[in-house]
Amino acid sequence: MDPFTQFSAFTEELDGLRAKAEQVQEKIRNATATATARDGAVSVTVGPAGALVGLKFTSQAYRQPPETLAALVLSLARRAQRQVGGEVSRAYAELVGENSSAMSVLGEFLPAESEREDPESRERKNSSLPRPYRPSGQRRPAGDTDDYDTSW
Questions:
Q1: How far is the C-alpha of 68 from the C-alpha of 129, rounded, in Å?
Q2: Which of these, 8, 131, 147, 120, lies nearest to 67 by C-alpha position?
Q3: What is the mean pLDDT of the chain?
């Protein structure tokens, strides 16, 4: 093969790699994942780096104790982060190869499989926690919504 033909082939291959890299960049840039509670009360969406980009509550979510709701949100965020991490990993593998050293490095930053957790099970675990302290004593009169005691 003459040098001109080799150079042309190399240039075509390079152009193909560049186009593939741009496609992978676009996939990674647009990667999102949403995790939703089984009852639909909470949905969490994360972007390609795992940062929270969306959080939705239905009225049903507010019926849960704050500690349970907070634990559910965190658990759903972790699930969505694992999902988007997998999406980013698959896109990156298209470019560098699934068994490459670059994929090994990326794998060090993704959650381990053992970190998988069912958000509903965390919610059930937290429901067995003691209720937060609420002082006993006089109850508010019906219709009193003022949080400030001005009787002093």
A1: 9
A2: 131
A3: 79
